[in-house]
Amino acid sequence: MPLSQSMESDRVLVAETEAQILVLATQISALERSVSLLRKTQHAAKTRLDSYTYPVLTLPLEIISEIFLHYLPPYPTPPPLTGSLSPIRLTHICRQWRDIVIATPVFWRAIDLSDRPIRLKDVAALAALWLGRTGGCSLSIDAIDWKPITSALIPHRSRWEHLRLHRLQDWPRIFEKSSPTPLLQTLLLLPTSPTSLPIPREVPLTLIDVPLLRTVELSIPGGRYPSLPWQQLTSLNFRSIFLPDCVHILRQTPSLITLRCYVRYRHEELPPPSAIALLQLDSLYFRCERTENYLNLFMVPALRVLDVSAAVFSTTLIPGLQTFITKCSCTLKKLRILEARDSREMYEQAFPEIPDITVIPGDESN
What we know:
Organism: Favolaschia claudopus
Low-confidence stretches: 194-204
Strand order of the largest sheet: 1-2-3-4-5-6-7-9-11-12-13
Strand content: 15-25%
Protein name: F-box domain-containing protein
Mean pLDDT: 82
Number of domains: 2
């Protein structure tokens, strides 16, 4: 091939390949733009997927706190210190949950220190930890009256709202006259054992500055009862009490709506005194240690719920109840008889005006 033809052929080839390169370069630029757009779309999708993995983390902190609050038992019931239903369990899930739970005082405002399988000194340390997270919240406390524990509780006395003390040892020290408990609504005091007398008689047992106290549950052996504002109570539970103590206290409780009472017998007791008028009493749960006409002590015209053992009357129960209802002029809506000797049908026939009657025979009352 002549030189001139060869040169012309190369010029044509260069021009053609240049045109092809320009086309490919244009295509590459378009592909790069497409890749960049796809990467942005992919990144947005991954971000959404990450939020779908833990959707609770996308909620406002107030909503997360409200959800967590429903995980715990409803206040004032305290959750366990550890394990399921404990706020400590929530702190073990992730860092964000831990921060939320620790920073939310209402998660720690109810605490159960009454009977734990761990060592008492560890319970005392946990008490200090929990109470330190409560901020200014009112408190619900279920505890053993053991010095290291009560020592952790006492500095927060002004915020006690519901207090249950078991195995009493030194509870007068907890209620010093100089230390008011203005928020206290519920008080439960139980001794170490039914026969122990842990409270020294020389210690004055007076609770002051408890304007909100309405519910009290007591089991104090030996008749050593605290001086309480009995007149403002609406709910009272005597787990065990001798008749003279019971009568003495109930004469000071005109506002009672609910009364639970187990009367014990003491040989030297005096004959039953005159009637106890509880004009607002709605519910009466009454037990006695021996067969006596103790129920006749009560004058309760507003009574709607009566739960008694058959031993409350020394006579046949049905006639005794009829006399009691007539004397009080009350309108019962619910009647429950324990240790019954008569059938339910007999009670329904005797009291057709009572819509809800439950009869439990003596061998089933436990």
